[in-house]
What we know:
The chain is α+β, with helices and mostly antiparallel strands. Helices cover 47% and strands 18% of the residues.
Amino acid sequence: MLNRQELLKIKSFTDILNKYPIIEVDIRRTHSGYEITTRNKRRDKTLGDALCIAWEMSTHYQWTCTADADVNLFLTLMQSCDFQRPYRLQYSCSQLADSACDAINWIIQHYQQARPSHDKTVSNRARRNSRNTESITQYINDIFDTYSRVLVVRLDVGYEEETYDRLDTPEVIEDRELFLATVRRRYPDLIGYVWALEYGKRRRYHYHMALLFNGSRHQQDVSLAQALGELWQELSHAAGTYYNCNASKDKYDHCYLGIVNHWDREKRYYMEKFISYLCKGDPLIDTLISKRQRCFGRMETPQPRSRAGRPRRLALSLI
């Protein structure tokens, strides 16, 4: 089965096309036959990888549209082309090389012609991130309208390096769903959470999570974060890892971890600032998830409880 991480090779080439819109390939005679080239070795390697993966996906697999519009466009154009599988862009006869060269230039040309309509996707992503940030502000205010003290736990969870090459997106999503469902079941005083899935060239798949608990019931944030991290290790498909951010509060110039009181404007401001940062989005993860999958999410907003006395009001805009 083709690993969806291979799609990043297509992403690398579409990034080149976006940066250098005027690219053409031609044929160069070699001692072993004919080679298609962009006159740049690094680009040739990236192009060859992208074509091989796209050919595999369009020929042998029923691929699902990713959340990355550029990669989808490249794959769609590849499917529309009668293209023989390339091997490092090298061909044994001039006829095959000519045909492949024409097909590649056709793909590049139509990609550049179609892409202006896809530029709208970039601005849509920015607007989406802005809306998510606004919703997080309201989410946190809603929580503090219900609870006077909130215990903030931050976890970064991922996988051991030895598992990177065999991990795939569905497994990573399943791990997160199982983990959060188990936390909700085992910890009835969980009142909210926000998570973001990212993909890095060094750390590969990983999540940033902020988990919020009723601070009137929980005060030991470091041990709670450790227990949650160990739960991730227990439940994840592969060898799970975690980083307990609450155990390193001294590394933060403005710490929002641990207990945050309703009246503490400064802590609430930095709490909102960090959690909103999770909304920034990750261009690599968009390549690896389908349009129906998400790279950011949160727990449902808590239902307000009836309380006697004067209601609390504190707008973060005051700071």
